[in-house]
Amino acid sequence: MAEILSQEEIDALLSTIGKEEESSQELPETLIEEKISIYDFKRPDKVSKEQIRALRNLHDKFARNFSSKLSGFLRTIIEIDVASVDQMTYGEFVLSLSQSVSFNVISLHPLEGSGIIAVEPDIGFVLIDRLLGGFGATFQNIRPFTDIEQSILLDIVNLMLGDLKNIWTPIAEIRFEVIAQETSPNVVQIVAPSEVVVLIVFEVKMGDYKGIINFCLPVITLEPILTKIGTHDMLSISRKEHTNRVVDILQILDNVLIRLETYLGEFKIDIESFLNLKPNDIYILQKSTNEPAEVYCNGVKKFEAKLGKIKTKKAIKITKLIG
Which ranges carry the Flagellar motor switch protein FliN-like C-terminal domain (predicted)? Predict the structure, then answer.
């Protein structure tokens, strides 16, 4: 005969079953949340995170070089930093720009396609004012750039393209050239709005003013060289470039002229005798000919030497390197 459970035992069993159901319902939810990763099929990531990192490192170097060149060009201190490197659709890039931007379409020969350098007006007018001899100020009411102002900004864009060509040379020999200038981003469409582009955003600071210069490259244009863009490849290229640069610098230094001066000694003279100095006057130096003479290289003491002569010419013989 089956054992009859008491009411207390029945209640204990029911409470245990309720707890097991709660734990079994909570566990799958936790596991599902951990496995979920968001993916937007409208915006597939065509450029890997490693390639994005490599592009950032590449343009960080460009920003340092170009800030120095632009500072010398404008004769004032310019700071340029890479604000971000992202991939997005071309339509989103155009929507992110202001309506009064300096929109420069650039060719990327031998790659098929074009890129964009967009100078925002908040920094564009500051650069124009500086180029025209001002202190570098902007207008309170931003307006579209005139054709003359676009031509003035073209000098800075071309300067920027020269440095970009040097930075990209280890990856590919790209000839950057401005082929069109517009004041509205809606006038020119280099790729379809749904195409993915890489956007490098530079923040430019000059005095109290700062603004943005955008550098946009369509991924479809970069595809032939995309495999060459990677952190490991960039590191090996950087080491090779550094070695080549050292060799180039040493070759240039071989032909540099420097001034060598030998300090023979000194003597004291009063003002009256100094004023009465005349040719063939002889004064004795407070230094023996056996003591080493100090040799200066461009004003810096570098050697010790012995005094002497070769045939009819005075000479020194280097005996010791200092420092």
Answer: 253-322
